[in-house]
User: Fold this.
Amino acid sequence: MTSRAGDSAPANADRRAAVAAILASAIAAFAAGRAGDARAQSGTPAGAPRRSNLRPRSHALPEAVDLARDATIARNTRRPILLFFDRDDCPYCERALREHLVPMSRESPWREDVLFRQVEVDRARLIIDFDGGSNTHVGLARRYKASLTPTIVVVDANGQPIGDPIVGLLTADFYGAYIEDALRAAVKRLRE
Assistant:
């Protein structure tokens, strides 16, 4: 007579192999995303028609208004600038702001180490650009090729991107980690 433990050993081995395969696949997908895979899973095209019923935004970062002033601060303190490109009616943007960016902008170490600025890709608001010239939010979105929202671009004091953009609301569970990795790399680069 065979014991139950003997009968279940092959089944347990099969389960362990299946779990190992699933974990390996998840780790590979996670690593690909962290390596700069900028393919979006969820986002709103920047040129999409507006929805008629806009709700007031409940979460927001400081608006990009005077990037020349921000550049001076960033240069003097060796801090990167996170540019968050969004639209008023983008539900993915609202989620990114509510769950990740606004809390990060208020917490240590990010509030001391990074300047957070919001750019609305569907607004022609006038701004002072990094070089002191005038531009608009729409023009800034074109420069950084922010054609899907949300898009995050981390830049130096000259407005030059540091690393790859984060386009769309990538895997929601890892979105905060993508942002933190981008910011850590930017801070490290500027302070070396």
Q: What stands out?
A: Confidence is low (pLDDT under 50) at residues 1-5, 30-41. The longest strand covers residues 81-86. Strands lie at 44-45, 81-86, 115-120, 126-128, 134-136, 148-149, 151-155, 166-167.
